[in-house]
Amino acid sequence: MIAAESKKRVGVIGPGWYGKADLFRLIQVAPVEVVSIADPDRQMLESAAEMISTRQLSKKKPRTYKDYRDMLKEKDLDLVLIATPDHWHALAAIDAIRAGCDLYLQKPVSTDIIEGQAILAAARKYN
Prior knowledge:
Blueprint: E1 8-13, H1 17-29, E2 32-38, H2 42-55, E3 63-65, H3 68-73, E4 79-82, H4 89-98, E5 102-105, H5 113-125
Parallel strand pairs: 1-2, 1-4, 2-3, 4-5
Helix pairs in contact: 4-5
């Protein structure tokens, strides 16, 4: 069994249908612990937190945030899964990169070339 210390700490921005589908597959194939989720829809947030707690090994319920920026301020995430509507991808990605997180970013990664270049510039700047 993999030690708890080696588990990646995951946060999800946008735990709707697509976000949960990607996340539940990640839980199946990788040593992760979902510690935080963010969504402005409080009902969606509570429902997703409950579902996540039944799917991960620890059975712990993730922290919930209405604003993903508050989630990123915690500075305790290794990976952020971004499953927001397409037009929010770039901003959330850049903020997560700036917070030092690796990304799983749904396609399209941006709505235009300029946003894509901004994500790439942030990745290069913050390694």
